[in-house]
Amino acid sequence: xxxxxxxxxxxxxxxxxxxxxxxxxxxxxxxxxxxxxxxxxxxxxxxxxxxxxxxxxxxxxxxxxxxxxxxxxxxxxxxxxxxxxxxxxxxxxxxxxxxxxxxxxxxxxxxxxxxxxxxxxxxxxxxxxxxxxxxxxxxxxxxxxxxxxxxxxxxxxxxxxxxxxxxxxxxxxxxxxxxxxxxxxxxxxxxxxxxxxxxxxxxxxxxxxxxxxxxxxxxxxxxxxxxxxxxxxxxxxxxxxxxxxxxxxxxxxxxxxxxxxxxxxxxxxxxxxxxxxxxxxxxxxxxxxxxxxxxxxxxxxxxxx
Length: 305
Fold this sequence. Notes:
Largest sheet: 8 strands, mixed
Shape: globular
Helix content: 25-40%
Order of helices and strands: EEEHEHEHEHHHHHEEHEEH
């Protein structure tokens, strides 16, 4: 076990979440942004993964909105998000540029940030820029051990993209069956049956409509992994599911930890790459706990173990 690492045991219960897709809240004339929670509370920005939307956070919202003013945008270049300023040149850095500009237009100058997958990478970039008061990165993308690992990751995402017409057809016809919902999402999460049929259809629609995947992959292969970052100014918590089948920790998490000096690592039992449906209580707990560290003098580095 690494210094600063601990494991949260599995205490999940079989609850179904997200019976439908709620409309964007707070900004109907802008790209999709969910905004809720006490306005006098600290702000928490939630960033979804590649091919997703803000709605993937739905299971956590009732918990997080008790503690924070939550702002959850759909990322630029995604279905419902802002149009990318430069699709061909898209990189995590350019996405972060556009995201910061969008958040500032919403009145957010700094915030706690939690992100999943690509959203985790962007959350780390926000820490680098001094925007984030704390970062909780759930199975963040951004590092790989070898070029072979990067190619395997890209292939693992492009294959379902190519099969999307078939997968969406199956979901439309048989998405009412829990076994089908679980099977279609097995690569992403362990408990896809907790998605409603409408939430599954929306998830697949968003993934199929994300046109910036190929240029993002091509540019990432050229630019390389995330630049080293020290968790010396704000608390950075890396949270990884033990059943992550998209970017398993051994090939992608360990290289990332070497690049984020002083980050706190939590391995979460029995959850997958997109852990919000697998165990919303534990994931929300991890986010709330890390945000609280921002106000503690000993909040940085391995002292948080």
